[in-house]
Design a protein that fits this description.
The chain is α/β, with parallel strands linked by helices. The protein contains 19 helices and ten strands. It is globular and about 65 Å long. The strands form three sheets. Strands 5-6-7-8 form a four-stranded parallel sheet, covered by helices on one side. Strands 9-1-10 form a three-stranded parallel sheet, with helices on one face. It has a three-stranded parallel sheet with strand order 2-3-4, with helices on one face. The protein folds into two domains: about 5-130, no CATH class; about 135-470, TIM Barrel. About 40% of the residues lie in helices and about 10% in strands. Helix 9 links the parallel strand 3 and strand 4 (about 220-225). The chain binds iron/sulfur cluster. Iron/sulfur cluster binds near residues 150, 152 and 157.
């Protein structure tokens, strides 16, 4: 058995050949988070023709990269303080501070070698470039789940019920209107509406619902998810773009980034085999952006993925954002395993430090995303306050009702006053926003922009006429 396999590490074939290279000083007695980052790698890469595979002078730490995340070990902070690791971290930090775009190999290197404070500094430098004001935004909203019936059976989901289950429901219009009315009375600006993949509640139900709500209330429907839209298209045997066009016509204002999990097929086949593929998830967002609507993006990590697959997820998002520019924000959280159907699949070892690591790397890597949202519902208020020093500039929604992660035993709903107090005590001014990140708060000087989905259609992927009109609506300084 090779040394790597004895340690339970699975290496790519080309890296296995590195181990057998006569001059490669691959030393299994070295601390594992240092292996593979010594300067010899650069020389070896050049001598073997692999140099073009990497844009960094050093290859990522392999032992950690190829491991299932369940066995991943955080790097030692002390080892990042000097020597070759520190030199490489300093180089990347300088590059990021100069608005450089890091490669996926550099992201892997950061994930496996950087100490948390270095990551926080780098993420903050990107945050300040994108959002230099000392403020943190949030939105008053409500989660509303018109149905919990779902036929997709994701192993990590404690929210859904199969058709016919005695706890399965579809809310009546009256129940929905009452919830919307309560939300509007409390100053709510957004309804985050999502359901399960119901075999009979399809796009016509949702178009009518959204159109009826828009006719009665002044509130944005931030509704559905890429997997739900792909489910409609599949059941209705029509193109994704047509379903989105109908929803937009009905009044859909923006699309949440849910259902992304990890955008790598190997992972999706294990944790959600019946759910939308990576390509389809991206295609729904691409088509959404092409109609002129904006959407957000997410990642649910900490299940069966490897570090390389986490980074691959970010690569897919950054590539699509380069193409359309339609994403407004990114948020991540770890899988909430309690009480889910396949509880045994999901490790309980993801920690707050890992959350800060992933969220900071996302801020550094996704240099074409304007906003990073913290997830206090999954991480708790204290951790979310800390995440403001790791690149997050938005506190998300107040979620006057939350049914999905709370079904998995994770529940951190908090009052507006408490959110504001935490933001203030972290040194920022709290301000309310709308779904398109326009500030809608009487404490803010200046005009709100964008106010609605039409004004938000400034991204390159939007139709030309919408972009022109959206730009013309921008207030002059
Ligand atoms: S995560 Fe969504 S698609 Fe998966 S089972 Fe739950 S409700 Fe259904």
């Amino acid at each position: 058995m090779e040394g790597s396999e004895a340690l339970g590490v699975h290496l790519k074939p080309e890296w296995k050949s590195a181990l057998s290279h006569p001059t490669a000083p691959w030393d299994w007695s070295l601390p594992e988070n240092v292996r593979g980052v010594w300067p010899w790698n650069s020389a070896w890469l050049h001598s073997t023709g692999h140099a073009n595979d990497y844009t960094t002078p050093m290859a990522p730490t392999l032992a950690n990269t190829e491991r299932p995340i369940r066995d991943w070990k955080a790097p030692s902070a002390a080892q990042a303080q000097n020597g070759a690791l520190r030199e490489e971290l300093d180089r990347i930090e300088l590059f990021v501070a100069g608005a450089g775009r890091i490669s996926k190999e550099e992201a892997l290197f950061l994930h496996n070698n950087a100490d948390l404070l270095s990551l926080g500094r780098m993420a903050t430098s990107v945050r300040l470039r994108k959002n230099p004001e000392a403020r943190i935004t949030y939105i008053v909203d409500r989660n509303l789940n018109p149905t919990n019936v779902c036929i997709t059976d994701c192993g990590f989901c404690a929210f859904y019920r199969s058709p016919g289950d005695r706890q399965a429901y579809v809310l009546s219009r009256d129940e929905i209107y009452q919830k919307v009315e309560d939300t509007v009375r409390l100053g709510g600006k957004q309804l985050l509406m999502q359901g399960g993949h119901h075999p009979n509640v399809l796009s016509d139900f949702w178009c009518e619902l959204i159109s009826d709500i828009k006719a009665r209330f002044d509130i944005n429907c931030h509704a559905l998810s890429a997997p739900e839209i792909e489910h409609f298209a599949r059941y209705e045997k029509r193109p994704i773009a047509e379903v989105i066009a109908d929803l937009k016509e009905a009044g859909l204002g923006s699309l949440p980034g849910a259902g992304a999990e990890v955008l790598v097929e190997r992972v999706r086949k294990i944790i959600a085999p019946k759910k939308t593929t990576t390509d389809d998830w991206l295609e729904v967002h691409r088509q959404t952006h092409k109609t002129g609507l904006r959407s957000s993006a997410t990642m649910m990590y900490g299940n069966v993925e490897t570090v390389a697959e986490r980074i691959e997820h970010l690569v897919r998002l950054r590539d699509l954002q380069d193409e359309t520019g339609g994403f407004t924000a990114f948020a991540s959280w770890n899988t909430q395993p309690e009480g889910v159907p396949q509880e045994e699949l999901f490790p309980r070892t993801t920690t707050p430090a890992e959350y800060l690591r992933v969220q900071s790397i996302a801020r550094i890597f996704l240099d074409n995303f304007d906003h990073m949202q913290t997830s206090y519902v999954t991480q708790g208020m204290k951790m979310s306050q800390v995440s403001l020093a790791f690149g997050c500039d938005d506190f998300g929604g107040t979620m006057l009702e939350e049914n999905v992660v709370s079904a998995a035993g994770c529940f951190h709903l908090e009052s507006i006053q408490r959110i504001e107090s935490l933001i203030r005590n972290a040194g920022y001014q709290p301000l309310q926003r709308n779904s398109w990140y326009g500030i809608e708060d009487e404490r803010n000087d200046g005009q709100t922009w964008p106010k609605n989905r039409e004004e938000a259609a400034t991204h390159p992927g939007a139709p030309d006429d919408m972009r022109t009109a959206a730009r013309a609506s921008r207030p002059t300084a």
